[in-house]
UniProtKB/TrEMBL annotation:
Regulates the proliferation and migration of oligodendrocytes, a process essential for normal myelination and repair. The lineage of its organism: Eukaryota, Metazoa, Chordata, Craniata, Vertebrata. Pfam families: Tetraspanin. Belongs to the tetraspanin (TM4SF) family. Interacts with claudin-11/CLDN11 and integrins. PANTHER family: TETRASPANIN, TETRASPANIN-3. SUPFAM superfamilies: Tetraspanin. This is Tetraspanin. It comes from the Eukaryota. PROSITE patterns: TM4_1. It is a multi-pass membrane protein.
Length: 253
């Protein structure tokens, strides 16, 4: 019965180590996705706190690849030292992922305030030229999120760009995709996106943070199972001399 249990634990552990290799790639992808997305929205954040979970999760992904290698070798050879190292590193990674989850929730709560503070400043610095970083950022999110202005298209009337242009229009990026002849004129507001960008930027960033949180939670759960299986193998080795002799090929005196 005990031998069956140890064999099952080893089988599950080897399978989990293969999952860890896949998880390493997924975690690195998630972290890279947050980096790329943040680059498109960084003008709406005065702090780069959003990148902290992303950096952490990429580091965890890289470490998981090494953990999977150590775990497979230690499990197949049933190395006490290797399995102990595996459990310790896995515990550290587990605690790191718990920290990622906590940071994700903390920073997610700050997103709305951060966007509210900075978005008006970004819109005020819009000048409609491609050389201006704020202009590129505004045009990008208005096309990408299909929005216009902070709360709606009428917000553009309070910007310096609108007052200087004096053509009673908003940027072309406010035009709906299916309207070919749209010029951004406020006299044809039906051609413009009706929803403001502030709420959509907040929603997008909160979704990204939840993406990170759920990814970390999922793999933290898998790592708990990995630690449990490794502990079963270690406990069996340390408590059963007959099992130790069996795996080393020894005999009783």
């Amino acid at each position: 019965m005990g031998q069956c249990g140890i064999t099952s634990s080893k089988t599950v552990l080897v399978f989990l180590n293969l999952i860890f290799w896949a998880a390493a790639g997924i975690l690195c992808y998630v972290g890279a996705y947050v980096f790329v997305t943040f680059d498109d929205y960084d003008h709406f954040f005065e702090d780069v706190y959003t990148l902290i979970p992303a950096v952490t999760i990429i580091a965890v992904g890289a470490l998981l690849f090494i953990i999977g290698l150590i775990g497979c070798c230690a499990t197949v050879r049933e190395s006490y030292c290797g399995l102990t190292t595996f459990v310790v590193i896995l515990l550290l990674v587990f605690l790191t992922e718990v920290a990622v989850v906590v940071l994700g929730y903390v920073y997610r709560a700050k997103v709305e305030h951060e966007v509210n503070v900075s978005i008006k400043k970004v819109y005020d610095e819009y000048n409609g030229t491609n050389s201006n970083a704020q202009s590129r950022a505004i045009d990008y999110i208005q096309r990408q999120l299909q929005c216009c202005g902070i709360h709606n298209y009428s917000d553009w009337q309070n910007t310096q760009w609108y007052k200087e242009s004096k053509n009673n229009s908003v940027p072309i990026s406010c035009c709906k995709n299916n309207v070919v002849s749209c010029t951004g004129s406020l006299t044809r507001h039906a051609d413009l996106y009706q929803e403001g960008c502030e709420a959509l930027v907040v929603k997008k960033m909160e979704e990204i943070m939840m993406y990170v949180i759920w990814t970390a939670l999922t793999f933290a759960t898998i790592q708990m199972l990995g630690m449990l299986c490794a502990c079963v193998v270690l406990c069996r080795r340390s408590r059963d001399p007959a099992y130790e002799l069996l795996i080393t090929g020894g005999t009783y005196a």
